[in-house]
Fold each of these.
Amino acid sequence: MKYKVPVIPGDGIGPEIVAEGQKVAEAAGEKHGFDLEWIDYSLGADHYLKTGELVDEDTLKELSNYRGIYLGSIGDPRVKPGVLEKGVLLAMRFYFDQYVNLRPVKLLEGVWTPLKDKGPKDIDFTVVRENTEDFYIGIGSRSKAGTSRSEFEVKRNLYSVKFGLDVESDSEEIAYQIGMVSKEGTRRVIKYAFDLAMVRRKHLSSVDKANVLSDIYGFWREEFESIAAGYPEVETDYNFVDAITMWFVKNPEWFDVVVAPNMFGDIITDLGAMIQGGLGLAPGANINPEGTSMFEPIHGSAPKYKGMNKVNPIATIWAGAMLLEHLGERAASEDVVRAIETNIKRGEVRTYDMGGRNTTSEVGDDIAAIVLGKI
Ligand code: IPM
Ligand code: MN
């Protein structure tokens, strides 16, 4: 069996960490009898600075022939903040309609957590973050005193929406950003979360801010309620986003699957990463169950560590395990996660963030060797 997988190493530390993820995935392939053929795509800052292009339609079309893309990280200080993040990363999430952003928050055996008296049994949940709507639709502007009119459009595979906005203001200048959720977009991600809860511990927590942003998140809550009626076995609860940050710290054991709108999902998963041991350990997957998905660490491109062979590759290796599972290689995927756990438990080969002195590639070598049973 052979899988063709596009790889986008990206910016900053991206190339270094992705190389280790490839190494470990290949080791799992060797053990489980499959081959990986990587197809390199050089998207990101260098490509943009050289060509002025973020990601073109032809590349996107080509990438959509594959089930899973392996991504390092996007973002570079030479480019204005947001240009690459929106123009490459979000552009791909939207183009491929990767409406689920799956972020496991799992404390592995042997990892230190800042939460006192909590261990691996207590910290094991998954956040399902909606990934195509909410305040991420990119609609907003500024306008100076006076009157003005703007037209905006949201184009998705599911639907398209046009907004026309008349602004009349005597403030010196205003800025605004519009958040939007659709019935289709909300229901599909909540259903995904319920299905996931059904194969886990049958508990789903919804995140909103229906007490204040009641149009957008009151709608989210209503859809959640209506879908919950079809899953009587799943226990549910609602959480305001401010409160859930408190519960993640105080009682993480309460959670099994958490479903959140895009913006809140972004925020709470950085907190999730911290309680599972840090950003160096937190993987993510952008999923379109019927199309092209994309696997990446949830951390950024850490430009100050670029080329130093210093950062922790575990989040990316773990994202690689999620990619293998998505390709149907579940046993290989589980082996990779177990090997990560063994590496951590032994504590002999680790990067600085975990109190070690080893390099990025030494950690990758160690985990690959564990997968192959060589050490
Ligand atoms: C993430 C990141 C991105 C996001 C940025 C880089 C666009 O923070 O994947 O969580 O906000 O989704
Ligand atoms: Mn984020």
Amino acid sequence: MELGTTLTRFLIEQQRKSGASGDFTGLLSEIATAGKIISREVNKAGLIDLLGYKGKKNVHGEDVQKLDDFANEVFINTLSHTGHLIGMASEEMEGIYQIPENSQKGKYVFLMDPLDGSSNIDVNISVGSIFSIYRRKSTGKQATMEDFLQPGRNQVCAGYLIYGSSTMLVYTTGQGVHGFTLDPSIGVFLLSHEMITTPSRGKIYSINEAYDTIWTENIGAYIDQAKKEKKTARYLGSLVADFHRNLLKGGIFLYPADQKNPEGKLRLLYEAAPLAFVVEQAAGRASTGHAPLLDIKPKEIHQRIPLIIGSAEDVTQAEKCCS
Ligand code: AHM
Ligand code: MG
């Protein structure tokens, strides 16, 4: 479709072509709305001392929410009334959020990391929101754990918003990966990247090398190979930004297990699985080092997992160092 097409028109066209019910059109439109609201607040974060964030008081002496709590609430308020969801889960909430009694319910569950990398906001580094949608398994009046504890392979939609030098929405419903850039002058997402494919081999490796003495896998062997191949290191410590750059340019991102975090640091359901679905749809790969990430059946909603993700050949090479 023509670059510059609005997200709304793109979604309607996709719905028409696939004969779908319109659930995703509704959900993705509201995800885009949430993204615009969060983007607006993230952009104001430089005024931190004036407006006061992070649970502090603002200049008017009012309590102000942390931005990640704010983002969480924005997604809940925006999506819980769409009629498409039965429940939600978030990195910011301990348990499941049930769609309220008085709201219409639907057949999907929504999972999110509402504001990943939020410690980077104060220093003006890009951050993002990651989301994932599954069809529910249970049939009762409320969502159950079973609805959320599904392998990533069952995702029906996943993506992220990146709040960077521009704000972008990148998503997949299993028919390729599409990217939209927010035109702030009209407040509309426009198609900027249709059918993203990631190079099969990249120049970039992204890892927090400060932990090399405590990695539990032989990731060091892979990093040595990467250096011999004259790859270059890029690591922001903001997953969405590191992932997005590597997706477009080609590269590999690794957050392995270490002695401090024997399961790794990143969350399977809110971070790893959604990005794994995106990367596979873009012809890349995602792995735990031992198994395809999307095959992992979660045991609990906040489970952590080691993540190796990016260009297909690079991920395969890194996996060999774990075997
Ligand atoms: P968060 O969910 O507390 O924001 O932490 C996740 C972030 C990711 O964005 C990033 O990839 C990772 O933590 C960086 O961790 P480290 O500082 O250990 O390298
Ligand atoms: Mg996070």
